[in-house]
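Hello Y.,

Per our agreement to keep a running log of every chain we model this quarter, I'm adding this entry. I've kept the format consistent with earlier entries: sequence first, then predicted structure.
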Amino acid sequence: MKKMSVFLSLAAAATLSLSSCQKELEEVQPATQESAAATQNLSKSDLLTASPWHLTGLTTTAVAADAKETTTISLLDRLKPWVRDNVFSYKVGGTYIVDEAAVKVHPQAAQQLTGSWKLSEQGDSLIVTQSHGVHRFAVAELSATTLRLTHTEAGTNGAAASFTNVYSH
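Predicted structure for the entry above:
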């Protein structure tokens, strides 16, 4: 008889815990939908400054002056570890911070580099100013999860190379 009551107690406990898990899932789902709806109403500047960005993709496309074909190469795997783990933050008010994260080129290197940023009113171009220069990017995509920047550098004799940087949260 004792075995039967222990078994019934375990069955009741399992039933209660499973039903409480289902209830939690139902409560979490509407909050996720509200969060997605809220990000749709954010401005491009708000999306940029919402949280730090991590480099998740880097490609280059080269075009020779007389060539009809282009060559696209992924460069992300070729980056040094101390570059791949950097964290990029765009702060409200126009401050830009690059945090060297856990891996630095050498221990004496500064943990953070700062500068400024300016996003065009249309949200289609971004200018980043740092101590070593000014970088101008076309904003190909800016969403709650993805920042895709492109820029082109002219080479010699009409050749050019386009770079696409992809960042995620």
